[in-house]
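FIELD: query
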Amino acid sequence: MTSRSTYHHGGLRQAVLDAALDVIAADGPGALSLRDLARRAGVSHAAPAHHFKDRTGLLTAIAAQGYDLLARALADAAGLRERGVRYVRFAAGHPAHFQVMFRPELLRADDPALLAAKDRASAELRAGVAELTEDGDTLPDGIDTRTAGIAAWSLAHGFATLLLTHNLDEPVAGREPGEVFRSLTGVMFGADAPPTGAEQRDG
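FIELD: result
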């Protein structure tokens, strides 16, 4: 158990977040208890409430952190397909964040940090769709960039959700999830799919 004296400059806050992420990864967000998290982090039972006020505040902080991590993961990705690959890899690498981020009933919707982080992640996703038309590609009749973005997000998010709920254990069979997703988009969209960063470097 970690001594309170070792925490400084936000270390206690992150320690509680880390303990919460461990619980969520193992048992889901419903298993969270501030008192239990205090015990896990080796701090007084009042410490988590001091930083997060309540369970909703803690989950909101986890979601905000997750959106920040997602925005960084998507930054500078080469094309829409590569953003999808990175989205899947983010979910595989941060399953606890992913479980919380898209559960609005668990979160404080008007939290400024959450809203700002969501905006950053959304901007990165939108950038991938915008690149389609910037590169001279045309979208099907009746499909605007917003609708195309929803379609792309649905594909990546659906794959990630099936992956994390172990519905793809057999078809993925130990392969790297991002590469499986890349292959999937190739099957669905063929050679005309937006190039990945690796494809651009190899060219």
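FIELD: remark
Confidence is low (pLDDT under 50) at residues 1-6, 191-203.
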